[in-house]
Design goal:
Layout lengths: L1 H9 L7 E7 L4 E7 L6 E7 L13 H11 L2 E5 L11 H14 L6 E11 L1 H15 L8 E4 L9 H5 L9 H11 L24 E8 L3 H13 L4 E10 L10 H19 L9
Parallel strand pairs: 3-4, 3-5, 5-6, 6-7, 7-8
Antiparallel strand pairs: 1-2, 2-4
Helix pairs in contact: 2-8, 3-4
Length: 283
C-alpha cells in the first residue's frame, strides 16, 4: 500500500547509466545499485531508506537514490533490509553492517570501497549512525561520510513532538511511538546506543551532513545530534529547511526546497568522497 501511494513520487527524475539488483554478503541481502555514468569506478553511497523500520522499500525511495547518484556523481547502493515487527533489532543493523563488509570485499564491481559513505532518512539515518557505531565496536574502519536526513535518533519526546504533531506534518507522535515498539525486542533495547544513537559515545564517527526539517516532530533530536557530534569532535555540516516537513525529500518532483536540499548534500558528498581514502580506524 505504501509503495502504491508513493508511486507518483518516484516517477521521473535522473536517468541512470545502469541499475542492477543482486544479493550480497553473508546474509544475502538484496541491494539495488544505481550508477549515474559509464565510469569504470565510482565512489559509493550506501543508502538506507526510512519508514520507521516497518515500511517503505527500495521502490518507494528509488528516486531519492537516483537524485543522489546523479547530483553527487556516486554509485548508490540501496539496502533492502528486513522490516519490523517481523524482524526486530538488530536484524536490520546486522544486514547494513554486512553490506558494508561485502562492498569492502569488492562483491559489487566498480565501487571504490575506500570512498564509501552511508546515509538515509528517518529510520535510515538511525541505521546509518548505528552502522558506524557497530563498525567501531568491531574494530573496523568507519565509513568516509554520513548523510543524515531528519533522523530518528532517540525515542524520547521533546518540544518539537508537541509543536509539530499532526497529520499535516507527515509524521505523528503516535506513529513514531508505534515504529519504536515494532523495532525493539523489549524496553531494555531503548537504552542500547545502537538503537538510540543519541545515547552513544559518538567519538571517532565520520563527518556528517544533517538535513533538518523545521516542521518535524524529530527536529529537536536532529539539532541535538548535531550538537553531540560536534562535542565529540566530529565535523558536521547542518541545514535547517524552513517550512519543510518530515519526508520532504521525497517530494522533489514538486518542491524546489527538496531540490535545494539534494544539491546541498550532494555538493558536500562530492567533497567528502572525491578524494577520500577512508576516514580511518575506530578509536
Amino acid at each position: 500500500m505504501a509503495e502504491e501511494v508513493r508511486r507518483p513520487w518516484t516517477r521521473g527524475g535522473p536517468v541512470m547509466h545502469s541499475t542492477d539488483e543482486l544479493r550480497i554478503g553473508a546474509l544475502s541481502t538484496r541491494v539495488r545499485v544505481h550508477r549515474p555514468t559509464p565510469a569504470a569506478v565510482h565512489p559509493g553511497l550506501i543508502y538506507i531508506h526510512g519508514g520507521g523500520w516497518t515500511m517503505f522499500s527500495l521502490d518507494t525511495h528509488d528516486r531519492v537514490m537516483r537524485e543522489y547518484a546523479a547530483r553527487a556523481e556516486v554509485a548508490v547502493v540501496g539496502i533492502d533490509y528486513s522490516l519490523s515487527p517481523e524482524a526486530k533489532f538488530p536484524r536490520a543493523l546486522d544486514e547494513c553492517v554486512d553490506v558494508v563488509s561485502a562492498l569492502r570485499r569488492a562483491e559489487v564491481p566498480g565501487i571504490d570501497a575506500a570512498r564509501l559513505g552511508v546515509g538515509g532518512d528517518s529510520a535510515g539515518a538511525n541505521l546509518s549512525v548505528a552502522t558506524n557505531l557497530r563498525l567501531r565496536e568491531l574494530g573496523e574502519p568507519v565509513l568516509a561520510a554520513m548523510l543524515l536526513n531528519y533522523g530518528a535518533f532517540d525515542d524520547r519526546h521533546t518540544t518539537s513532538y508537541r509543536r509539530y504533531d499532526g497529520e499535516g506534518y507527515m509524521l505523528t507522535a503516535d506513529e513514531m511511538d508505534g515504529f519504536w515498539r515494532n523495532y525493539i525486542r523489549a524496553d531494555e533495547d531503548r537504552e542500547d546506543p545502537l538503537v538510540c544513537p543519541l545515547r552513544a559515545n559518538l567519538r571517532g564517527l565520520p563527518p556528517a551532513f544533517v538535513a533538518i526539517a523545521e516542521c518535524d516532530i524529530l527536529a529537536d533530536q536532529n539539532r541535538l545530534m548535531v550538537d553531540r557530534l560536534r562535542a565529540a569532535g566530529v565535523e558536521v555540516e547542518s541545514h535547517v529547511y524552513t517550512g519543510a516537513t518530515h519526508s520532504f525529500l521525497e517530494a522533489v518532483s514538486i518542491s524546489a526546497l527538496s531540490g535545494r536540499a539534494y544539491d546541498d548534500a550532494s555538493k558536500w558528498l562530492r567533497g567528502r568522497l572525491a578524494g577520500s581514502r577512508g576516514h580511518g580506524h575506530a578509536v
